From TrEMBL:
InterPro entries: NAD(P)-bd_dom_sf, SDR_fam. It comes from the Eukaryota. Keywords: NADP. It comes from Hymenoscyphus albidus. The keyword NADP applies. GO terms for biological process: abscisic acid biosynthetic process; fatty acid biosynthetic process. The keyword Transferase does not apply. Belongs to the short-chain dehydrogenases/reductases (SDR) family. One of its GO terms (molecular function) is oxidoreductase activity, acting on the CH-OH group of donors, NAD or NADP as acceptor. The lineage of its organism: Eukaryota, Fungi, Dikarya, Ascomycota, Pezizomycotina. This is NAD(P)-binding protein.
Length: 263
């Protein structure tokens, strides 16, 4: 089985920071034809510049688009335009997501409607918007061409329960359900769909969560069975594998990536 990504046409959301940014670095370095989207224009521009500078000899290509994944028409315009330019869509990485301002401290009964709606809007409906735009370009055609691979970002919050985090937990469980439903439905069309469920990973979102919960990072580190935080680079490697032909028989999984926290 091939583990190569050279020439693969891939779209990625949440590409301006954290796991999304590191995944974009890796895919570009391996020759993918990539379009990354994020809601923050300046960070997105900086991401593209840093990626190109880091791998000047890459055979890959990278473009970017400012996209709010909650807006279905904007998502469709971005993906349709990119596919029209490149003729196909081999893979999609749906990482864009948000956490609640009150993560780790806000009781279920105190969740404001606006917080709930934002989290569901980005983490669930936003992902649905992306998949609805991606799948039509991945269907198996009459010549037998294989569809593609979709990788969604869930979380260990999507495979267990966490107190004072109901909105985020609910949204990430929904990602798992959406992923499994897609896998069952689209397998006959050659489309694979898997999710990653990261745990304690060094990212800006992860750091903000620890600060909001007033958790000492060193104390938390010691509670991880492997004794360390994961890195965005490590998650990116796993995403890349799920996109490539080396994982061709894998679909419908939610793969925990947490150093042993929830096993």
């Amino acid at each position: 089985m091939s583990h190569k990504l050279e020439g693969k046409v891939v779209v990625l959301t949440g590409g301006a920071s954290g796991i999304g940014l590191q995944t974009a670095h890796l895919l570009y370095s391996r020759g993918a034809i990539l379009s990354i989207a994020d809601i923050t224009e300046e960070a997105l521009k900086n991401a593209v510049l840093s990626i190109k500078a880091a791998f000047p000899s890459s055979t890959g290509k990278i473009t970017s688009a400012v996209v709010n994944v909650r807006e279905r028409a904007a998502v469709e315009d971005w993906i349709n335009s990119f596919v029209k330019e490149n003729g196909k869509l081999d893979g999609a990485v749906n990482i864009a997501g948000v956490a609640a301002p009150g993560i780790g401290v806000q009781a279920l009964e105190d969740i404001p409607d606006e917080d709930w709606d934002l989290i569901m809007g980005v983490n669930v409906r936003g992902m649905l918007n992306c998949m609805r735009a991606q799948i039509p370009h991945m269907r198996t055609f009459n010549d037998g061409a294989i569809g593609g691979s979709i990788v969604n970002a869930s979380s260990i919050a999507g495979v267990t329960g966490l107190a004072y985090n109901a909105a985020y937990v609910t949204s990430k469980h929904a990602v798992g359900g959406l992923t499994k439903a897609c896998a069952k439905e689209k397998a006959p069309q050659g489309i694979r769909c898997n999710a990653i469920a990261p745990g304690a990973i060094h990212t800006p979102m992860g750091q903000r969560g620890l600060e909001t919960m007033k958790v000492d990072s060193e104390v938390y580190r010691k509670s991880i069975p492997m004794g360390r935080f994961g890195t965005a680079d490590e998650v990116a490697e796993h995403v890349a594998w799920l996109l490539c032909d080396g994982s061709a028989y894998m679909t419908g999984t939610v793969q925990v990536f947490d150093g042993g926290i929830v096993c």
